[in-house]
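ok here's PH domain-containing protein:
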Amino acid sequence: MTHPASGPADPFDPPDVTWDRVSPRLVPARLVVVGFWLGLPLLVCLVLALAVTGWLWIPAAVCAVLLLWIGLLVPRQVRAIGYAERDDDLLIRKGILFRELVVVPYGRMQFVDVTAGPLDRRLNIATVQLHTASASTDAEIPGLTPDEAERLRDRLTARGEARLAGL
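and the structure:
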């Protein structure tokens, strides 16, 4: 569907929506996890390639290339995460190549969780998890500051209760 004056419509960027971004501290949080899962095998392969056999340079090179690629990709992925509160629903978008837009009506929300693991607490970020009447429409917003996560949790809970009371 196209609009004559504005060109093709973008389903991932509705008109009149101002997107809020997550904290850039989510980038190092994700890089630390990836560094652990790929860096440890890289180190093991390098040590064994030097000590035992040379063919282990191949998996070491694969791990190194993956680390570099993910190191370049993660900051772009984090910048692509956004959320917007509207009158009747919450919009959450993410993704670069495979884009996703989740619309969560306030009346469908059952409860809202705020979580933060040890690394998240160290980097002063938290994740807001939205649980709805249908498990397939649960959504999360990672990388929020604790104050924003608490504010969003309270606001979404209040809006959800108000919508349920109106049914």
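+1. The first helix runs from residue 26 to 51.
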